[in-house]
Amino acid sequence: MKIFISVDMEGATGVCHREHLLPGGDDYQHARRWLTGDVNAAIEGAFESGATDVLVADGHGTMRNILLDDLDPRARLLTGPAQPGNRPLAQLGALDHGAFDAAMLVGHHTRAGTPGGLLAHTWIGMVVQEIRLNGLPASEAMLNMAIFGHYGIPVVMASGADDFCRQMREDFGERMALAEVKRALGPTAIVTLPLVEGRRRVREAARAGLAAGGEPYVVELPVAVEVDVHRDAMRERALELGATPVGRLGFRYEGDDLIDVMERLWRTLVHITREDTAFLR
Ligand SMILES: [Zn+2]
């Protein structure tokens, strides 16, 4: 049984602030260990449930956060920046049809615009007000689930703060097991569980999710993705790449090939930030 684990950092046990999320200070170096611990817990749960192969995809910022020295050696690691020529699906990659039996989302967070949401954003906070997938406000988790769903892969487990877990229940009901590793008090404050307890919950949810199985999240075709950005100039750049304007600050892509639409979406968001792509380096 082959498992794909997609990893973000905002929803890791203990993480609550920008300084945890960006290379530079001591806070970040600590947070990388906390994150790697949550990832190891998911790997542990997967192997206890019959996994024979686990691929972990580092999907936050520079996409070089997970500490290879500390990562469970049974797993392989997909790492390196999400430039379109590298990882055209942003947080994911190396997804061949039928190659994975199930996926997990570790360390995820609420979508842009979530009131009081902990570190809430959708892919690029300085650009995106909201992304809609076939009309539904989409989190990164939802966008990734749609990509997994295209390949027939069910997402069986997700971990993050309580606000993220609530949003996943609202969006997807009982479709997956959830691990709540901290309580959000606002955009940058939490009551966190101890590392050992956060990891225990991640491991338990991984086991529970794989035991329950799950259905792939398959979106209806043709798929439409709409993005509202913060400023006119950002939309102008999207239109340079052939996006269709919608509303006052929105653009849209539509098509029968979900992967093509998602790749165009990511390429466009990167194009909009072409003068400041430090976060991708
Ligand atoms: Zn992130």
Brief sketch in words of this structure:
This protein has 281 residues and is an alpha/beta fold. The protein is built from seven helices and twelve strands. Zinc ion binds next to loops.
3D architecture notes:
The protein is an alpha/beta fold and about 280 residues long. The protein folds into 2 domains: about 200 residues, Dipeptide transport protein (Rossmann fold), CATH 3.40.50; about 60 residues, no CATH class. Helices cover about 30% and strands about 25% of the residues. It has 7 helices and 12 strands. The strands form 2 sheets. It has a 7-stranded mixed sheet, sandwiched between helices. Helix 4 links the parallel strand 7 and strand 8. It is globular and about 50 Å long. The two termini are about 35 Å apart. The model has no long low-confidence stretch (mean pLDDT about 95). It binds zinc ion (ZN). Zinc ion binds next to loops.
Characteristics:
24% strand; seven-stranded mixed sheet; alpha/beta; five-stranded antiparallel sheet; binds zinc ion; 281 residues; 7 helices
Tally the helices: what do you get? 7
Query: Could you give a short account of the major beta sheet?
Result: 7 strands, mixed
Secondary structure class reads alpha/beta
Distance between the termini: 33 Å
Helix content, binned percent? 25-40%
CATH topology category name of the largest domain = Rossmann fold
Count of structural domains: 2
How large is the share of residues in beta strands? 15-25%
Mean pLDDT: 95
